[in-house]
Amino acid sequence: MRVLGVDPGLTRCGIGVVEGAAGRPLRMTAVGVVRTTADADIAERLVLIERGMDEWLDTYRPEVVAVERVFSQHNVSTVMGTAQASAVAMLCAARRGLPVALHTPSEVKAAVTGTGRAGKAQVGAMVTRLLRLDAPPRPADAADALALAICHIWRAPALNRLQQAHAAVANGPRPGGRPATAGRKPGGTPSANPGTPSGTPGSPKGRTP
């Protein structure tokens, strides 16, 4: 599986590509940052991020795009910019028909370091170790993007099993052993008494005993 991880941000949007599978060694394909200047118009900055994302998607052709789920109770202006950059990344992936997975920061930290409260230094150190790099990627946004890709590769099998289980429950039999479509006429209209003929049991239809 080849996953492109995105750590969204207006000034620095971290991007990293990782290949591998759960339980097997992982390999970093590429890592970098799409940068914009803080004094530029917001619309222009989003266009630059879009162009950068398109270049990465066209060059490395990932199977999945993993994006950090934006969540914060503080600094609303920063969160707005991060959310806008996140939306651009998802839009670029969707235009290519690529699935998009959202992972919270705590999920990523827990997957990579074993604790959802790990600091950036811990995440960078574990990314370096897991991908067998010579040094932690810089800036930290790049390391976070790789961590997102690693997180998705490791969580994908469990997520797939969960989705299959939900689908089985939704399409399985109802209580009493009847399938979800039992007792319905063509067109989806339930019959009055499924499986019971009209008239008095044991008597010819419409005849008075």
UniProtKB/TrEMBL annotation:
Q: Which residues form the active site?
A: 7, 68, 141
Q: How is the cofactor bound?
A: Binds 2 Mg(2+) ion per subunit.
Q: Which domain of life is it from?
A: Bacteria
What residues does Mg(2+) 1 bind to? 7, 141
Example GO biological process? DNA repair
Compartments in which it is found:
Cytoplasm
Keywords, A to Z?
A: Cytoplasm, DNA damage, DNA recombination, DNA repair, DNA-binding, Endonuclease, Hydrolase, Magnesium, Metal-binding, Nuclease
Enzyme Commission number, as recorded:
3.1.21.10
Broadest EC class assigned to this enzyme: hydrolase
- Names of the cofactor(s): Mg(2+)
Q: Which GO terms describe its cellular component?
A: cytoplasm; Holliday junction resolvase complex
Is Zinc found in the keyword set? no
The UniProt subunit note reads as follows: Homodimer which binds Holliday junction (HJ) DNA. The HJ becomes 2-fold symmetrical on binding to RuvC with unstacked arms; it has a different conformation from HJ DNA in complex with RuvA. In the full resolvosome a probable DNA-RuvA(4)-RuvB(12)-RuvC(2) complex forms which resolves the HJ.
Q: Which family does it belong to?
A: Belongs to the RuvC family.
Matching entries from HAMAP family are given as:
RuvC
What PANTHER family does the record point to?
A: CROSSOVER JUNCTION ENDODEOXYRIBONUCLEASE RUVC
What is the protein's given name? Crossover junction endodeoxyribonuclease RuvC
Organism expressing this protein natively: Streptomyces armeniacus
